[in-house]
């Protein structure tokens, strides 16, 4: 069965998100750990988190994704921004220990003119400060489109971050279909070749989740503008191949398309129909 969901608001709590996911026909979902454009975080409600755990167990949810705020930039050239990134990630991970089967996804960051090598070193340094041996939450580096000075624009940069992280067994990857397509990886015409390159550079065993988004822009545009499934440059045929590929079909898929809840429900139903038994 296809494990698919969408991004949901945490404003009404964790249990509400679980119930909302079920109402959409989803068995996973994604949420922001704090204000995505700021940094404010909800008061910790352990009882609510445990209620979600119980609901997910009863309904056999796939792993869910907690998304770090966009303001988290561990490779900024300003110490104040890097300090916020370290504090936010550490606090997020401590809070997520109360959730079962949750993975923490973050954008590696932008080096802002310092160069990718410096950015990679700073990101790994942040991870080395924030990860601890006993944590149960896997941290996912997201593949990026290469807009501006983004780090993680190719598989090699992501691999380099992993190599510099001491507790690398706590790391995985979230592959964003729009990002890799905009980044120049032809998942439409050469999916097998792209996955082979991912496997040889990073290892498919590290792939833990997929952001399933169409793209408004062409291959290699480095733009990062998501589109509804089947209405962009990636297209239905490519998504059918992705959700049915043996290396991908059992992963949790999260929609981040420009949709309301009704639109997400329709996309979830459509993609479920497209996955072959």
What percentage of amino acids are in beta strands?
5-15%
C-alpha Rg (nearest Å)? 18 Å
Low-confidence stretches: none
Number of domains: 1
The ordered H/E elements are EHEHEHEHEHEHHEEEHEH
Number of extended strands:
10
Enter the CATH topology name: TIM Barrel
**Average residue pLDDT:** 97
Shape: globular
Which tags fit this structure?
9 helices; 38% helix; 277 residues; globular; alpha/beta; two-stranded antiparallel ribbon; TIM Barrel
Describe the model.
- This protein is an alpha/beta fold.
- The chain has helices at residues 14-23, 46-58, 79-96, 116-130, 155-163, 177-182, 191-201, 236-244, 261-274; strands spanning 3-6, 30-32, 64-67, 102-106, 138-142, 171-176, 207-212, 214-215, 226-227, 252-255.
Task: Sum this structure up briefly.
38% of the residues lie in helices and 15% in strands. With 277 residues, it is an alpha/beta fold. The protein has an 8-stranded parallel beta sheet. Strands 8-9 form a two-stranded antiparallel sheet.
Secondary structure topology:
Elements: E1 3-6, H1 14-23, E2 30-32, H2 46-58, E3 64-67, H3 79-96, E4 102-106, H4 116-130, E5 138-142, H5 155-163, E6 171-176, H6 177-182, H7 191-201, E7 207-212, E8 214-215, E9 226-227, H8 236-244, E10 252-255, H9 261-274
Parallel strand pairs: 1-10, 2-3, 3-4, 4-5, 5-6, 6-7, 7-10
Antiparallel strand pairs: 8-9
Helix pairs in contact: 1-2, 3-4, 4-5
């Amino acid at each position: 069965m296809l494990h698919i969901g969408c991004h949901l608001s945490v404003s009404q709590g964790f249990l509400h998100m679980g119930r909302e996911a079920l109402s959409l026909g989803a068995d996973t979902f994604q949420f922001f750990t704090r204000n995505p454009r700021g940094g404010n975080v909800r008061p910790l409600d352990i009882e609510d988190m445990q209620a979600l755990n119980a609901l997910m167990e009863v309904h056999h949810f796939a792993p869910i994704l907690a998304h770090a705020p966009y303001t988290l930039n561990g490779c900024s050239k300003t110490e104040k921004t890097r300090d916020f990134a370290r504090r936010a990630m550490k606090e997020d991970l401590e809070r997520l220990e109360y959730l079962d089967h949750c993975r923490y996804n973050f954008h590696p960051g932008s080096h802002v003119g310092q160069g990718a090598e410096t950015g990679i070193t700073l990101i790994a340094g942040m991870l080395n400060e924030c990860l601890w041996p006993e944590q149960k939450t896997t941290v996912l580096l997201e593949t990026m489109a290469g807009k501006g000075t983004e780090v993680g624009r190719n598989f090699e940069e992501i691999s380099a971050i992993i190599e510099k992280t001491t507790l690398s067994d706590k790391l995985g990857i979230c592959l964003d279909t729009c990002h890799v397509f905009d980044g120049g990886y032809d998942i439409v015409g050469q999916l097998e070749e792209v996955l082979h390159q991912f496997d040889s550079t990073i290892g498919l065993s590290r792939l833990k989740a997929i952001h399933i988004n169409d793209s408004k822009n062409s291959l290699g545009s480095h733009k990062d503008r998501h589109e509804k499934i089947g209405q962009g440059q990636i297209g239905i045929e490519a998504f059918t191949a992705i959700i049915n590929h043996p290396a991908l079909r059992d992963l949790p898929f999260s929609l981040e398309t420009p949709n309301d809840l009704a639109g997400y429900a329709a996309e979830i139903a459509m993609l479920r129909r497209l996955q072959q038994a």
